[in-house]
Amino acid sequence: MAKSKGSDGAKKKGSGENPNNKQIARNRKARHDYEILDTWECGLVLLGSEVKSMRAGRVNMNDAYGDVRDGEVFLLSLHVSPYEQANRNNHEPLRPRKLLMNRREIRKLIGKTTEKGLTLVPLRLYFKNGIAKCELALARGKKSYDKRAAKADADNQRRVQQALRGGIRRRSAED
After folding, report:
1. What is the rounded CA–CA span in Å between residue 1 and residue 57?
2. Three-state helix/strand/coil letters over the chain
3. CA gap 30, 122 in Å, rounded
4. CA atoms of 16 and 4, how far apart (whole Å)
5. CB distance 38 to 94 below 8 Å
6. Burial of 93 (0-12, 13-18, 19+ CB in 10 A)
7. How many whole angstroms separate alpha carbon 98 and alpha carbon 76?
8. CA–CA separation, 22 vs 67, rounded Å?
9. 10-26 average pLDDT score
10. Of 126, 7, 123, 20, nearest in space to 66 by CA
């Protein structure tokens, strides 16, 4: 794979992203609706047409969640659109997809998900060195007043950062 280079032929510095890693989708609402307690990187068991559809970015993970069944972890309600160039053996868009995790991690998840109020939420899907991965989080739902408090804290933090950068200008007496 070719590395990104600047106009002078040197590698770009500060790009921050590994060229082998490509983000497919992000569940942006998850951090707003849930308090994230712990995260894991999981592999996904996929069909060929699903991989091609994911590379095209045709994934919707708004309602997706994780579930532990018979000692295995599954990702449910993840919508991967059918691949248009596939033949009649195309995949089902909402089928349950198995997540690949260590047995020790799965045992820990079984204990945690039985607690009241905890759930498994996918945060993002990405390719890491050509392999599809899912960042799965153990999360607790936020109440509406928690969301308001978090938004107020973020607004205050943003105002402080703007003031430190000199972005807030004081009005003069003439205005």
Report:
1. 20
2. CCCCECCCCCECCCCCCCCCEEEEEECCCHHHHEEEEEEEEEEECCCHHHHHHHHCCCEECCCCEEEEECCEEEEECCEECCCCCCCCCCCCCCCCEEEECCHHHHHHHHHHHCCCCEEEEEEEEEEECCEEEEEEEEEEECCHHHHHHHHHHHHHHHHHHHHHHCCCCCCCCCC
3. 8
4. 12
5. no
6. middle
7. 9
8. 25
9. 65
10. 123
The pTM score is 0.70
Sort residue 132 into left (φ over 0), alpha (ψ -120 to 50) or beta. Answer: beta
Q: Which residue has the tokens 């105002």?
A: 159
Cβ-contact 79, 73 below 8 angstroms: no
Average pLDDT over residues 73-96: 86
What are the structural domains, with CATH classification, of the chain? 21-165 (2.40.280.10)
Structure tokens at 75: 């990702």
Residues 115-130 have pLDDT tens digits of 888 889 999 999 999 8
Residue 128 · residue 20 · CB < 8 Å: yes
